[in-house]
Amino acid sequence: MNRTAVATRTRPLAAGDRPRVEEMTRATGLFRAAEIPVALEVFDAAVGVGRKADPDYESTGAEVDGSLVGWICWGPTPGTAGTFHLYWIVVDPAWQHRGVGGALLEEMERRVAGRARLIAVETAGRADYAPTRAFYAGRAYRVAAEIADYYAPGDDLVLFMKRFQS
Predict the structure, then answer these.
(1) What is the rounded CA–CA span in Å between residue 28 and residue 156?
(2) In whole angstroms, what is the distance from residue 153 CA to residue 70 CA?
(3) What are phi and psi of 41, to 5 degrees?
(4) Are 100 and 132 in contact (CB under 8 A)?
(5) How does the average pLDDT of the chain come out, rounded?
(6) Which of 3, 95, 107, 161 has the fewest C-beta atoms under 10 angstroms from its C-beta?
(7) What is the pLDDT at residue 166?
(8) What Å distances lie between residue 79 and 56, 76, 84, CA to CA?
(9) Which SS3 state, helix, strand or coil, does residue 91 take?
(10) Which CATH architecture best describes the domain 9-163?
(11) What is the distance of C-alpha 128 from the center of its chain?
(12) Could you tell me where the DSSP H helices lie in the chain?
């Protein structure tokens, strides 16, 4: 596997990106079949597929050489003061471990700067999610809570948080 860092450009996502977003989300092999429609529903809300974009969702994509290779979606957590939730971050498996996910996360953090007090990220506790958890831990996200068997028996929820200066 080539793990050479690549020059990544972030850009707004559009309705026409939906098939590629679905393809990448499925290709990771991490998400259950029932999770894919949820990801697409959030994508649709963020970019306004078939309706006006929902201001509670923000999204951006990552390109390498003009090809969409990753996407991220986040938004303010309703009923909170300055807490944001990272809903989805997906990188095409062929482009993982090359800086794409980091570029997407940095772009989200840049966009919420001045508005965010906390960013919350929920991820799974399964063994195949160990690289995902290491990704967040390596970027100053700290485990705030773990809930055993949350997603399914043997599949815990791990809640990461990152605090920002106000």
Answers:
(1) 19
(2) 30
(3) -65, -45
(4) no
(5) 95
(6) 3
(7) 60
(8) 12, 9, 11
(9) strand
(10) 3-Layer(aba) Sandwich (3.40)
(11) 17
(12) 18-27, 35-47, 100-112, 130-137
Closest CA to 75 of 54, 55, 57: 57
CA atoms of 35 and 86, how far apart (whole Å): 15
Structure tokens at 115: 């508005």
Tokens of residue 131, six digits: 């690289």
Question: 9 and 62 in contact (C-beta within 8 Å)?
Answer: yes
H, E, C per residue of 73-84? EEEECCCCCCEE
Residue 107 to residue 139: CA distance in whole angstroms? 13
3-state secondary structure of 34: coil
Q: pLDDT, tens digit, for every residue of 142-159?
A: 999 999 999 999 999 999
Residue with tokens 């290709």: 27
| Cα 12 to Cα 149: distance, rounded to the nearest angstrom | 36
Decide: helix, strand or coil at residue 95: helix
Task: Give the N- to C-terminal CA distance of the chain in Å, as an integer.
Answer: 41
pTM greater than 0.90 (yes/no):
yes
> Are the CB atoms for 121 and 112 separated by under 8 Å?
no
